[in-house]
Design a protein that fits this description.
single chain; mainly alpha; 61% helix; globular; disordered C terminus
């Protein structure tokens, strides 16, 4: 029997943002540690074919653990005003295990006043307070210290001053990842992994909801208004990213 290529049955099942998003949320846990590969490679084309705003497309790829496809998109959104894309860039690096790079992106979006970032960590702060997991009196937006002291710190370390809970989240995931890699006998409990997975899901779904409110979940055939000063290399790559069907998407 000859091989005819991957089945497109999965792609045909999901023709709307809502159906595809619900499938990813209901089928897989939120990504937490570096994935070996995309959870369902057949969804890559299904996601791209929706022609969503690039932040939503990138977020769906992240939920599918397809980090290369997400990274292509967030590279176009590396500065304000594309703050949601910047935040997704940080989330992507958090999941792939590049923790200091993730911290740098979180610092950038915190300093830019990204609405999605604020929603995530204000809600996380309230949830921690309800469970009695306070943070020594420090709120989600700052950990004390003067602006001058913060500026003198290496960039990844500034996150602890700007947003202690976000910093604790990345620290805890990095610890879990290190224990997994070393097969440490002092590995974290299942309860801790569940807590972090729940918070990862909260982060991604909150960002997704923010982007839907901000950009809508409709078609963006021309994605160029979402980009921030793409370079020549990105334009060349974008021109090769052609989806079959209803024409060529502009990058």
């Amino acid at each position: 029997m000859s091989y005819t290529g991957p089945s497109n049955t999965t792609s045909q099942r999901f023709t709307t943002f809502d159906s595809l998003y619900a499938h990813l949320r209901n089928t897989y846990p939120a990504p937490l540690l570096p994935p070996g590969k995309a959870r369902d490679p057949s969804l890559t084309d299904a996601i791209s074919s929706l022609y969503l705003h690039p932040t939503l497309e990138a977020a769906l790829h992240i939920l599918n653990a397809d980090l290369p496809s997400a990274h292509f998109l967030v590279r176009h959104m590396q500065a304000a005003p594309a703050v949601a894309g910047m935040y997704l860039h940080g989330i992507l690096h958090r999941i792939e295990g590049d923790y200091d790079n993730a911290r740098c992106w979180y610092v950038d979006v915190a300093q830019e006043g990204c609405g999605a970032f604020q929603e995530v960590w204000e809600a996380a702060s309230s949830s921690d307070d309800r469970r009695g997991n306070g943070n020594d009196g420090k709120d989600a937006r700052g950990g004390g210290g003067s602006a001058k002291e913060e500026d003198e710190l290496p960039k990844p370390q500034r996150l602890r001053h700007l947003n202690p809970r976000a910093a604790e989240f990345i620290d805890a995931i990095q610890t879990l990842h290190g224990q997994r890699r070393s097969a440490s006998p002092f590995s974290s409990s299942h309860q801790e992994e569940s807590r972090l997975t729940h918070l990862s899901a909260h982060e991604l779904t909150t960002v997704m909801s923010w982007c839907v409110r901000e950009y809508g979940a409709g078609v963006w055939t021309d994605a160029r208004p979402a980009w921030v000063r793409p370079g020549e290399e990105e334009r060349k790559i974008g021109n090769m990213m052609v989806s079959e069907g209803e024409g060529r998407r502009k990058f």
